Description:
Layout: E1 2-5, H1 13-25, E2 29-32, H2 40-47, E3 52-55, H3 62-65, E4 73-76, H4 86-91, E5 95-97, H5 104-120, H6 122-130, E6 147-151, H7 155-166, E7 170-174, H8 180-184, E8 188-189, H9 192-198, E9 201-204, H10 218-221, E10 229-232, H11 241-249, E11 255-258, E12 279-281, H12 290-309
Parallel strand pairs: 1-2, 1-3, 3-4, 4-5, 6-7, 6-9, 7-8, 9-10, 10-11, 11-12
Amino acid sequence: xxxxxxxxxxxxxxxxxxxxxxxxxxxxxxxxxxxxxxxxxxxxxxxxxxxxxxxxxxxxxxxxxxxxxxxxxxxxxxxxxxxxxxxxxxxxxxxxxxxxxxxxxxxxxxxxxxxxxxxxxxxxxxxxxxxxxxxxxxxxxxxxxxxxxxxxxxxxxxxxxxxxxxxxxxxxxxxxxxxxxxxxxxxxxxxxxxxxxxxxxxxxxxxxxxxxxxxxxxxxxxxxxxxxxxxxxxxxxxxxxxxxxxxxxxxxxxxxxxxxxxxxxxxxxxxxxxxxxxxxxxxxxxxxxxxxxxxxxxxxxxxxxxxxxx
Length: 310
């Protein structure tokens, strides 16, 4: 069996060599490519003879997958699967497993970090200090006592809620399914419209599906308080970013912290959020910690070993 990691996913060169040896002893070829390359032709070249492919969030569309005649298992080192042509995989009996849960704490911590940055203007004050400036009479805000709407109460949404409880926040939520754990935390479930109307902070933690695409639409954004902020560490397509940028520039929203976009960074020069007011923008880093990557490698290897032993 040929196993190909089309990118390193945090596996060091030394560990890659160790894995090569381990799987060779089991009669398998294990290849880890040392760089990330999203060019479809490069991906085809790397994957074309593989029985198993390990990939994170590099898009794998039909044009690539159909050239991989031996492919039987996609071992996805990521939580979401919207970058994979799942219909093609289903039609061609290609098994898909993800690495759900590897970055739960990492994403939750960054979501709260973005709230603190937007509220306390950390990035803005860093730039002012480097330019020999001062506070300039600007006041920040505290998390304590604020109402936070958790949009999506899956594992990451609940992990974020637990951190926010320590800050003394009031928690409300909108989600397709009401979770017992959320109710035990004292979270009040509301309709999406009512949740955003009441929230000081709206934190997005829902996967991207046909039902959630542009869930936070222009109409929903218009329901928010002018003092509200929006945090997105989920998927870029969950929010209408043009509507968000317009609301920020027209001061119909107070601020935003954004880590995800419609496409992976680098962003296009004309992306509306690049010129929006009071937005802290990150290049999709919420999941990227040493700890989460170590957990992810363990999950991926467990998935692989289970597949091999089936």
